[in-house]
Each structure stands twice: as C-alpha cells, then as structure tokens.
Amino acid sequence: MSDEQDRPTVLPATAGETSPDNPWPLRLLSEKLKAHIDRTPSCWVEGQVIELNHRGKASYLTLRDVDAEISLPASIWATNLDRIASPLERGSRVVALLKPEFWLKTGRMNMSVKDIRPVGLGDLLARIERLRQALASEGLFDEELKLPLPYLPHRIGLITGRDSDAKKDVLRNAALRWPAVEFEIREVAVQGVTAVGQVMSALAELDANPDVDVIVIARGGGSLEDLLPFSNEELIRAVAAATTPVVSAIGHEADRPLLDYVADLRASTPTDAAKRIVPDVAEELSGLAYAREQMRRIITQRVEREAERLEHLRSRPVMAQPLVMVDSRAEELTRLRQTATTTLSTALTRAQDRITHLRAQLLALSPQKTLDRGYAVVHLDDGPETGSIVRDPAQVEGSHALLVRVAGGRFAARSVPSTAAGAAAPRATTKSSPSRAAKPRNKAAATIETTTEERNDA
Fold first, then answer.
1. How many Å apart are CA 22 and CA 318, to the nearest integer?
2. H or E element: which one contains 55?
3. DSSP one-letter string for 260-275
4. Quick check: pTM over 0.85?
5. In what order do the strands lie in the sheet with 155-160?
6. d(C-alpha 438, C-alpha 446), whole Å
7. Taking the mean position of all CA atoms in its chain, how far away is CA 326?
8. Highest mean pLDDT among 9-23, 105-119, 335-349
9. Within 13 A of 200's CA, how many CA atoms are on the CB side?
10. 147-183: per-residue pLDDT in tens?
11. Can you give the pLDDT at residue 386?
12. Alpha-carbon distance 432 to 119, whole Å?
C-alpha cells in the first residue's frame, strides 16, 4: 500500500487537531494566517520615523515608540505619502493608520500604512495641556505637596546630560556662591526614547541616598520635541512621589514642561537653579557682619540706657542716705516694742491682782479657814461608813471609832455611850488639851473619848 493511500483524506479543522500523522499542508496554514490577518482591523498608532527609504512607487519606513525602544517596519505607497503637506523626514513624529498584510506566496507579513499625519506643535501642545489638566485635577501640582528646600544643602544630586552645558553652569555657579558645596552627579540621556527611563532611574537612586538633600534635574533648553520626555506622565508621577525636594531646571524661561509644575521649585535656567539652591557666601558674610554691628549697637544702647537709669536711681534721696529708712524703721520698731512691753506688763499685773483676789476669796471660803477659827470635822473611822462626816449624834450612838480633823491636823477618838436620862454626863478627856464638857443636846448625845495622840496632816 502506498503512502498516499495511508494518509487520511480529511484534514484537521483547527491547528490544535494536527498531528505528525495528519498535518496541515503549508498552503492551508498560510491561507488561514492570511484570513486571520485580513480580519485584523486597522489601527492608528503614534511613533517617530527613524528610517525612510524611497523605492519607486513605495516607500519603506521604520517607526519607533516615543517612550520605549520598540520599533516596527512599515511600507507606504507614494500616493499616500504625497498627500502630506510637508515632506516626511527622519525624526518626524507622526500618527499612522496601520493595516497588517500577509503575502501568501512568500509568507511575509507587512504593516501597510494606509494614512499618515505628522504631529504638529499644536497637537503636541494640546496633548500636553490635556495631561496637565488631568494631573492637576488629581492634586499633583498643589502647593501643599511641595517640599521646602534646605537652606544650606550638604550634598546636591544633579541629573543632567553627559558633559552638557547645563551641568557646567550648575557646578560653576554653585561653586562660586558656596565653594564647599558637594554634588552627586548622574549623567543620563535628556532627550529621545531612553530619556524617561534613565531620568527616572537616576531620580530613584538619588532619592534613596540619605546624604542627598536636594535633587536638580537640568537640561539646557531645546525644541518642544526635545523636551517631551520631561512632560511624560510616568516621570511626573515619580517626581511627585519623591521624598527629597526636586528642582526643575529644564530649558529656558519660555519652556514650561510639566516637570516645572510638579517640582518643588521651578528654576528658569540651570544657572538660576544653582543660585537658588545654595546661598551666596559673600552675601552671608556681609549679612553676618551687619548682624554683628546691629547687635553691638543694640547692646551698647541698652548698656547706656541702663547706666542712665542706674544713675537716676542713685540720685534719689533714699539712695543718697540709705540708712534713713532703716533708722526710721528701727525707731518705729523700738516704739512698738515698748508699747507691746507696757501693754503686756499691764495685762500681767492686772491678771496677777485678779489671781490674788480670787485666791483670797478661795481661802476665805475653804474648810481650812473654818478649822482655823476653832471648828473641827469628825469622821467615822470604822465599818462600811468609814470616812463619812458625822453630822448628827445619832450616827455615833454606842462606841464608834472616830477621826477628828482640826486646824493643826487630825487625831483618832472613840465615842462613849450616853448614861441614863437625868444622870450626869461623864467628862471627856483628850491628850491634846482639856476642854469644857458640854451638855448633850438630847438623850442620844454621846461622849467622845480620845484614844490616840494627835497627828498632823499637811
């Protein structure tokens, strides 16, 4: 059996169904590719013409992305190219309507330019203005977000072109103003498709360096197309997110890329940036000398004014004879002390007299005075009523031990029972002194007989 007889007669419907035993013919693949590519719609793209070759009725060009290293070959018929008002040149920025085409016989794909239009300055300006308004509406240009520049930066980060005039201007003018200034330089591309990426990389590196106090992005002017990288949205957002103050020194006074709006400080030129990021040492020395002179003058005036005030105080009578006030106060103090002493002595004398009078009254009313007049106080000296005063003869009926207090002291005694009614009362005797016997006041009267010697109590 032959190979043609072994081959299947039904081809796979899709590429995924093909196999070594049942492949597609190359013709079928090309046809399917052409059919698929033909269905691809046309698309407007923007790029820069980097190559342009004219070959008869067709021209071949290469378009490159405006922000990245990506290029694409294309072809255009001379009839379409002739419709352009100004001749197309290398470096021109264009928008083109591309339609992919696939050549069936050769298996090559070509990007056919159906229409092409140069991007004029008006279009670029309008596009930049729309981006500026969009970023401004997000608040990226607000003054509240701008960081203050240090008064005297220790180290300055400089992003500029390789061996450019802008770099020389910044270094020279900054050194003239402050010779001790230090720079951290990053040389990058400042135009072209690689400019945005290199500037952003240098910005991130300097922003992460803690020794860098301020970053300057400088370029020495150029056309609108040359300055387009500094209006790139990615670069603008990177500058807005930087934590280190950024100074924009792009172009000249009339050039206003979007970097000027987002930067913390916009300098009109690189020279102006150098003047604004570091102080002038001559001006600072002059200001320091002026401040010293002002301080010296103010201190001199203050000392003179205080000396005059002191002299005025010294001329006062109280300062001329300072002891006058002390003497007057001393006399007043002596007078007050005498008054206080007299008042206190009078009060003490009166109080002493009052105490003496009260004491006399107290002594006159005391029991001792009664005893001194010859009276005696009799106390019971036995039984549970020991110590009680005898106020009635009935308390001592019978024989009782007694304690008698007189003016000179006290002595013990005993009562004697009374005799029958009408009998003569016995005589009472004591060892201290004889006394006349008194008649009992009633039948209960008792006779007291002393039994101990006299005892004096204090």
1. 131
2. strand 43-55
3. HHHSSEE-SSHHHHHH
4. no
5. 182-187, 155-160, 214-219, 246-250, 265-266
6. 10
7. 55
8. 335-349
9. 18
10. 999 988 989 999 999 888 899 999 999 999 999 899 9
11. 59
12. 159
